[in-house]
Design goal:
With about 425 residues, this protein is α/β, with parallel strands linked by helices. Helices cover about 35% and strands about 20% of the residues. The chain has helices spanning about 5-10, 20-30, 35-45, 55-70, 80-85, 145-160, 185-190, 240-255, 305-320, 350-365, 380-385, 400, 415-425; strands at about 75-80, 95-100, 105-110, 130, 135, 170-175, 200, 210, 215-225, 225-230, 270-280, 285, 290-295, 330-340, 370-375, 390, 410.
Length: about 425
């Protein structure tokens, strides 16, 4: 892509340049087509993509149809059914829209369509795309169907200029971020279906994210021995055993507060147990209890050492649990569900960061910091393959404000509009 420095050089030397008018033209095109963009986003929100169960191919088909109405042909890359079901989902079709312009580098713009189920407590239809007081409500309005629209309309705005362009743009719309990304962008990259030079992934508008935490998820099954509730001493209570282990795990969180990251926006590691199940009836002492844990790893940590420490803590706690006389010892099964490495900045991402900060501050009227985030994303899968990437898109300052993964998720439409302008200006560096 043509460097921003080249544009500035033309202005400094007084040579007639269309750089500033081009940014104004991009902004004007986005303003003129914003109602169409909102309608596009509503259509995407109105098709559920709850993961689990993860039946996401219908959304990909609908997205491809909508893109076709803009003259964009989406390649449909269906992940084999057996692989998807072994992964615990139902269907995945990832999309690539290739927009080759000429000689130069290609930037990929990636957003994911899979989302967690809506849950309870909504005051709006989670699939309605309802608009109230300047915000659109619905699951995935903020994370990250909004950036299906941001990236699509930024690319359309660029092409509306009718100028000869360098390089190219690829839209990657994938459906496996919630489960780790291996069947989304990871699958596309592993099968050689894409190899961009740079990439940008869905994010929020008021910061450029250059690093994020890693994530280890594990399933732990505690085996005791069932017994009648009237004679509990004849068995081994798996729930009590699980609580004993959980206390040991939660004690680690106190230690984690003393392990701090040097990256702004990332604090310290932490562990959460998000799901527990077990038992057969109220009058039966449970013989088996399962729980799932999530351990967030700061970029400075070694994932192998983290997993070893968690396993050791579980095993030592199980051995220290004393069942009643005659009861059998606890047995523990530990299964890794996910190991997502942290994202660390690659040297080649600095031009992306600089451009997004520059245009973001101009459009939003405030500084746009470059920070890390405690979340984990599938951007790491690009970065692990040497593709410099950043996270930027449409949304508020924090996940909390967006209500992502909570009731009444929403995105401010003005943030969508302005983020689209920032992205269009960034990829607009491709003009000749």
């Amino acid at each position: 892509f043509q460097a921003e420095d080249g544009i500035r050089d033309k202005l400094v030397t007084g040579v007639q340049t269309c750089a500033l008018p081009i940014y104004a033209q991009l902004d004007a095109w986005i303003d003129a087509h914003f109602d169409e963009q909102v309608t596009f986003l509503q259509a995407l929100v109105q098709i559920p993509t709850d993961t689990p169960p993860g039946n996401n191919a219908p959304h990909a088909e609908r997205t491809a149809d909508l893109l076709k109405s803009f003259g964009y042909e989406a390649e449909k890359h269906a992940v084999p059914e057996a692989d998807v079901k072994a992964y615990g989902l139902q269907s995945i079709t990832n999309l690539i829209v290739r927009r080759p312009y000429g000689t130069g580098r290609t930037i990929a713009l990636n957003a994911h369509g899979d989302v967690v189920p809506p849950g309870e407590g909504w005051s709006h239809d989670p699939y309605g795309g309802e608009i109230q007081e300047g915000a659109m409500y619905g699951r995935a309005t903020a994370v990250s169907k909004s950036d299906f629209s941001t990236f699509t309309f930024a690319t359309r705005a660029l092409e509306s200029l009718g100028l000869p362009l360098k390089g190219g743009v690829e839209l990657h719309f994938t459906y496996d971020e919630e489960f780790g990304g291996e069947m989304g962008p990871g699958w596309l990259l592993a099968h050689g279906l894409t190899k961009p030079d740079l990439m940008m992934a869905a994010g929020f508008s008021y910061q450029v994210v250059t690093a994020h935490n890693g994530c280890l998820q594990m399933e732990v099954t505690v085996h005791g021995e069932m017994a009648h509730a009237a004679v509990p001493d004849t068995g081994t209570d798996a729930l009590q055993g699980a609580v004993h282990i959980l206390n040991a795990l939660h004690a680690l969180n106190t230690q984690y507060q003393h392990i701090t990251s040097k990256i702004e926006g990332i604090t310290h590691p932490y562990l959460n147990v998000g799901q527990i199940s077990g038992g057969t009836n109220t009058n039966v002492m449970p013989g088996k209890v399962m729980f799932k844990l999530d351990r967030r790893m700061i970029p400075e940590e070694n994932p192998v050492e983290v997993e070893s420490s968690i396993r050791r803590t579980i095993e030592e706690a199980a051995r220290s649990f004393h069942p009643p006389r005659g009861g059998r010892e606890l047995k523990i099964d530990i299964k890794r569900l996910l190991l997502a490495n942290a994202m660390v900045p690659l040297p080649g991402n600095q031009p992306l960061v600089d451009a997004l900060q520059k245009h973001g501050s101009e459009v939003f009227g405030e500084p746009i910091p470059a920070v890390g985030t405690p979340l984990y994303t599938d951007v790491r899968l690009y970065v692990e393959r040497g593709i410099p990437g950043v996270i930027y898109g449409a949304g508020p300052r924090t996940v909390l404000e967006s209500h992502a993964k909570r009731a009444d998720e929403r995105v401010q439409l003005d943030d969508v509009r302005r983020a689209t302008k920032v992205v269009a200006r960034k990829i607009g560096r491709a003009h000749v």
